[in-house]
Amino acid sequence: MTQAPYPPSWYAASAEPLPAQPALEGDLDVDVAILGAGYVGLSAAIELAGAGYSVAVLEAERIGWGASGRNGGQVIFGFGCGESKLVSLLGKDDARRLFDWSVEGVDLIHARRERFGIDCDWRAGHAHVAIKPRHVRELAVWRDELAQDYAYPLEWWDRDRLRAQLASPRYLGGLVDPRSGHLHPLKYALGLGAAALSLGVRIFERSPVLSLSEGERPELRTARGRVRCRAAILAGNALVKGVAPTLDRRVMPVGTYIAATPPLGAERARALIRNDMAVADTNWALDYFRLSADHRLLFGGRASYSNLEPPNLRWVMTRRMRRVFPQLADVGFDYLWGGTIDISFNRAPDWGRLGRGNVYYAQGFSGHGVAASGLAGRVIAEAVRGTAERLDVFAKIRHRDFPGGRALRTPLLVAAMAWYKLRDALW
Q: How far does CA 406 lie from the centroid of its chain?
């Protein structure tokens, strides 16, 4: 069967795909079966195959097809809910453990890049920037909290110091983290895929999982085959689609969008962000942006709570980009693409086990998953191997279904997001 190309994006246009992997045909018995060939699934596969387990990965499309190959590429510590929320959910001690492990997720990317020779356009540095005086105050509180409670110092750059590196009149200052950074998401996903294959992992593309049977030996079924295993890992995030209804009710699929300008040339691009860091503002409906290796501006931040692209998306994205960089009034976009992320109700990570405890899952990355997803794969692999202490801490977080079921959860979330957007505009 002819393999379809990746959905159009600058990422797909600038990455060399791996050779197509076969679809599953017939029955297979392995130690571990994994649904999803994104960051979580591939990370778990690498850890387990390296420990001698036989591993099969079932991917509905291609390696890195979903959010792993389409995201904003910003590699940062922490989780989508923030540190204070984790304290309220777990207490200070466990919240500190999760924070430290999130930093491990950042370091894990570097370790994997080095070990497997993954060229994914890594650039160091990330800034959270303030638009309004209240953002300055909020960032100051956060800086002190990170330094005092988590031993993680960030640098405050005032408006002048920030402007010397970021040529935008929009921001009053920012918190800068030299340890975080940005990368090419699809190149990284493909690098993990190549690493997994080199360790003997069997990856089956074009093999969407239709059902899961739990029990002593879980079974994942596709249209043309099935995989029996000692342990199963559900790593499809927003794209699991009914395989585990209990999990499906606890996340909201949200479409997010990124655009890429034409190549600006090295001089013009570097004049925008002189130190080549990634940038995100502190609004709820945030803008985030960075430079590509070929001197484009990559600009993201819009969202959709349906399967439909927002109206006038290109115009909206262009207007927002030019508000950040008025000097790009003559520049549009060569590429505009989207992907689907999964948001939990409390925006905290939802990782744990189902049934008899031999079906593992990770979801609810809430737009904060590039580093955390690799950590999730490692933590779940540890549990499969018999060391579940870290997964058990994550499993302490209580999660609830989105209210209203499938019919009402989207309009309810849209209403909530409208409130936060109004707050961004007025406060």
A: 23
Tokens (6 digits) for 49: 């195959």
Number of residues assigned to the chain: 427
For the chain, the helix, strand and coil percentages under 3-state DSSP, each to the nearest 5: 40, 25, 35
Render 85-135 in DSSP notation, one character per residue: HHHHHH-HHHHHHHHHHHHHHHHHHHHHHHHHT-----EEEEEEEESSHHH
Question: Residue 286 CB: number of other CB atoms within 10 A?
Answer: 16
Question: Residue 375 is encoded by which pair of tokens?
Answer: 């950590």
- Which distant-in-sequence residues (6+ apart) come within 8 Å of 408 by Cβ? none
Query: In 173-228, which residue ranges form alpha helices assigned H by DSSP?
Result: 185-198
Question: What residues contact residue 120 under an 8 Å CB cut-off, 6+ apart?
Answer: 113, 183, 184, 185, 187, 188, 191
Q: Hey, CA dihedral for 34, 35, 36, 41, is it positive or negative?
A: negative
Q: From residue 400, how far is each of 51, 231, 345 by CA, in Å?
A: 35, 25, 7
Beta strands in 117-250 (DSSP E): 123-130, 155-158, 173-182, 202-204, 211-213, 219-221, 225-234
- Helix, strand, or coil (residue 71): coil
Q: What is the per-residue DSSP string for 360-422? A: EEEE--TT-HHHHHHHHHHHHHHHHTT--HHHHHHHTS---PPTTHHHHHHHHHHHHHHHHHH
Token pair listed for 315: 């115009």
CB 19 within 8 A of CB 222: no
The pLDDT profile of the chain, 427 residues, written as one tens digit per residue, is 344 579 999 999 999 999 999 999 999 999 999 999 999 999 999 999 999 999 999 999 999 999 999 999 999 999 999 999 999 999 999 999 999 999 999 999 999 999 999 999 999 999 999 999 999 999 999 999 999 999 999 999 999 999 999 999 999 999 999 999 999 999 999 999 999 999 999 999 999 999 999 999 999 999 999 999 999 999 998 677 789 988 988 988 888 999 999 999 999 999 999 999 999 999 878 899 999 999 999 999 887 776 677 889 999 999 999 999 999 999 999 999 998 888 999 999 999 999 889 999 999 999 899 999 999 999 999 999 999 999 999 999 999 998 765 554 555 555 444 434 434 444 5
